[in-house]
Amino acid sequence: MTQAISKPNNQQNNLYESDLNLWLETTIAQLKVGDWHNLDTTNLIEELEGLAGRDRRELEHRLTTLLEHLLKRCYVKSEYDYAGWVRTINRTRVDIRKILKQSPSLRNYANSSELFQDAFEDALRLLRSDPDYGSVDFPDVWQFSCDVEALLNVDFWDMD
């Protein structure tokens, strides 16, 4: 048997706009008891769509950070800074692995050339606009594997 789901009433919309946490708690309680009639589906769908995009944005952010520090480690001659960059690389790799473990379906997105290119361009833009690295000749094209497994496991600076 299919049950109709109604549109949110003004009270639900007001709650969503005035107290998101209370709206979330109310919505969770309604879902738990099957109160479909009073469920604010419009805003629930909006929140779920936001959650779906959140992990993609987080993955792109982490990949940009990873590439930024890999570029530093590979192309900037500063032994004093190497350890800090490697720590950031390792920590970011852990963060990306956790995202992919929680949402394995993002692995295809992580391997997409579009995501990689966007993250690489962002990393280059950040580095080239930083006065500390203005004189470094970073390559316009990534010189190594773009595969997410390689990015998460290979120490590219050790490659000859």
Describe the structure.
Helices cover 69% and strands 0% of the residues. The chain is mostly helical. The protein folds into 2 domains: 1-39, no CATH class; 54-158. Helix 3 (41-75) packs across helix 6. The longest helix is centred in the middle third of the chain and has 35 residues, at 41-75. Mean pLDDT is 90; it is low at 1-6.
Number of discrete domains: 2
The arrangement of helices and strands along the chain is: HHHHHHH
Which structural class fits the helix and strand makeup? mainly alpha
The description of the largest β-sheet is: none
Mean pLDDT over the full residue set: 90
Total count of strands? 0
Alpha carbon gyration radius: 22 Å
DSSP summary: helix tally: 7
* Residue windows where pLDDT falls under 50 for at least 5 positions: 1-6
Q: Report the helical percentage.
A: 55-70%
Percentage of residues in strands: under 5%
The geometry reads as elongated
Gap between N and C termini: 66 Å
Structure at a glance:
This protein has 160 residues and is mainly alpha-helical. The protein has 2 domains: 1-39, no CATH class; 54-158. It has 7 helices and no strands.
Please outline the helices and strands.
Elements: H1 10-18, H2 20-33, H3 41-75, H4 79-102, H5 106-110, H6 113-129, H7 148-153
Helix pairs in contact: 1-2, 3-4, 3-6
